[in-house]
Amino acid sequence: MATLTEFTCKVQVSGSRKPSGPIALTLDQHEMVLHDKSLLRVPYCSIYGYEAPNQQGQDENSLTVVIHTITWTSADLSSVSGTKKATHRILFNNQSDLERFMDEAKKYDAFPKPRRILLVVNPNGGIGKAKHICDTVVKPMLEKSGLIIKEQHTEYARHAVDIAHNLDLDSVDDLVVVSGDGVLHEIVNGLLSRPDWDRARKLPVGIIPAGSANAIATSFGTRNPYVATLSAIRGRTIKMDIYSLSQLNRPRKYALLLFSWGMMADSDIESDNYRWLGAFRFEIAGFIRMFRLRRYAGKVYVLPPTRREEIDSTASASPTLATPPDSPSHNPTTTGSASTTEVGPESRYRSLLEKVDEEPPRPWKLLRNMPYYTMLLLLNVPAAGENIFFTNTIRINDGVMRLFYSCETQFRKIFLPFVLDLANGKLLQHGLLRDIECGGVLVVPGVEGKPSDESTHEVVNPELVTSPWAKTRSVYTKPGIFDIDGEVMPTTRTLIEVLPSFMDLVVPEWYSHEQDKGAQAEAARERTQLLGKAATIIPSSSKGSAIGLAVLGVVLLYVTYSLVF
Ligand SMILES: Nc1ncnc2c1ncn2[C@@H]1O[C@H](COP(=O)(O)OP(=O)(O)OP(=O)(O)O)[C@@H](O)[C@H]1O
C-alpha cells in the first residue's frame, strides 16, 4: 500500500470566497488529496505551476503555497472546450510544515521539473490563430510554470528548418512549436539535417496545436491547447518512429506523420486553396477529389517488417554517421538535385534507387494485383488530421510502417465510408483499403515529375500509362503529388525507410497505446485520477458522423452547383 504523508492546512480554491477551516492534506506517489467536506484530489499530472514563498516568516503569505492546475469538465480528455484552470492556495500552520510539504512534493515530482523551453511560434499557422493561442493560453500558463522560456516567431516559410538547423543545443532542453504540423515537420527536418544530427534527434519536441490539420495533437489527445501546454510544461516524452525518404540526387527528407500519393495527397495539397475553411479544408478538398478520382500507375515494393518492441534511446536504430561531424553541412533551405553529401542516419537500401532497371532483391516484394492506385498512404500516427482519425491500432514506436492502399474507383463504395467513418477510427472496417505492415517501401511512379512543373514529367515505364490497356482504364498520365506531412516532394522513385524510436515527442502523462500493456495500466490510472472516472482520448463515433454529415451537405451543394452552372 502507498505511504501517505499528512499535513494540516487551510485551503482556498479559486472561486471560493474564504479559506476552509483546518483540514488534512495527504500526499502519495501520484496525487495530493485535500480532505475537505468532499475530498478534493489534485493529481500531479494536472499541475502546471506553483508559487512557493521566497522568504521565511510567520505571516499568511510566507506560509502559503499556490498550486495551478487544469481540471476537466468533460469525460473526453482531448475535448477542445472541456477544461478550466484552477488555483489552490494552501496555507500551512508553520514554516517547518511548509518546508516538509515542499520536500515531499518535489520527491514525488508533483511540480514541473525545471527546464528551458524554446517556443517556436508560427503567427500564420492555421488561419492565423497561433499568436492568439500563444498570448491567451500558452504564455499565461508558462509564466506560472517556473520554467525558463525563450520565444521565437517564424518570419518566413521554412524558417523553422533554419531555426532547428542552427540551434545551440546546449541552450535548450525542449523545443515546443505553437503551430500546425507543418512547422513541427520543418523542425524535425532541420534537426536531422545537422552534422550533429545524432545529438539533435534527442532534443524532445512538442506541439501546441495552432494549425489546420493538427494531426499530431489529434493522435495524442492534445488538441485542447490548455492540455497541450500542460503536457509541454510537464515534459513527459515518448519515443517515436520517423520515416526517412530518399530520392536519387536529392537531400533526404524526414516525415513524422505520413507519406501519401493519390486521392489523399491530391486533396491535402489542393486544400491549400481553401485555407479559410480551417480544419474542414481537407474534407472539402477530399470529397471534391473523390468525384474526380485519378488512377495513378506505378509499382510499389515492400519490405517485410522487423517488429521491435519498445526501444530505449540507447538501443534505437544504432544509427551510424553517414558523414563525420565536421564535414560540410548541406544548406537546409536548398531543394533540387545538387546535394550529394549525405548527412543523417544511414540508409540501408539506398542502392535500390540507383538500380533502376533491376527488381529489388528478396525479401522485397512487389504489391500484386494493383493495376493502378487511387490511394496510397503510409501513416505513422493514428490521425491524419483533426477530423481524420484512421485507427488507434497504429503504434508509434514499434519500428513498423502501416501502408494503406487501394485501387477502388467506384464512387458509391468510397463515398459513404469516408463521409461517415473518417473521423471515428472505423474507416478501415469497410474493407475499402488494403492494410499491410512493412519495414520499408519503394514507390516507383509510372510518370515522374517535379512538384511545381507537371509538364516536365517523364514516363518511367510507357506501358503503365500510354498503352491501349491503360487508356481504356483512364489511367492518369501525369505524375500526381507525393505528399510528406502536408509538403510536396518530387514525384519520382522514392525509398521510404523507418527509423525506429528515433525521436522524443512530448505527450500527456496519460497517453499510452492500447498494446503497451504496462504503460496502459499506468495511463488508465492517470486518466481515472484526473476525472475520478474512466476517461477517453479517442474521438467518439457520433462526432465522426456529425462531421461527415456536415461535409456531405457541403459536397451536395457543390455537386448541385457544378451540375447547374
Ligand atoms: N512567417 C511566415 N510567413 C510565411 N509562411 C510561414 C511563416 N512561418 C511559417 N510559415 C509556413 O507556414 C506553413 C504552414 O504552417 P503550419 O504547419 O504552422 O500551419 P498549417 O499548415 O495551417 O497547419 P497544418 O500543418 O496542421 O495543416 C509552413 O509551411 C511554414 O513554412
UniProtKB/TrEMBL annotation:
Residues 328-342 have a biased composition (Polar residues). Signal peptide: none annotated. InterPro entries: ATP-NAD_kinase_N, Diacylglycerol_kinase_cat_dom, Lipid_Phosphate_FormReg, NAD/diacylglycerol_kinase_sf. It holds the Pfam family DAGK_cat. GO terms for molecular function: lipid kinase activity; phosphotransferase activity, alcohol group as acceptor. One of its GO terms (cellular component) is cytoplasm. Residues 311-355 are annotated as: Disordered. GO terms for biological process: sphingosine biosynthetic process. Residues 112-249 form the DAGKc domain. Keywords: Membrane, Transmembrane, Transmembrane helix. Residues 345-355 have a biased composition (Basic and acidic residues). The chain crosses the membrane at residues 546-564. PANTHER family: ACYLGLYCEROL KINASE, MITOCHONDRIAL, SPHINGOSINE KINASE. This is DAGKc domain-containing protein.
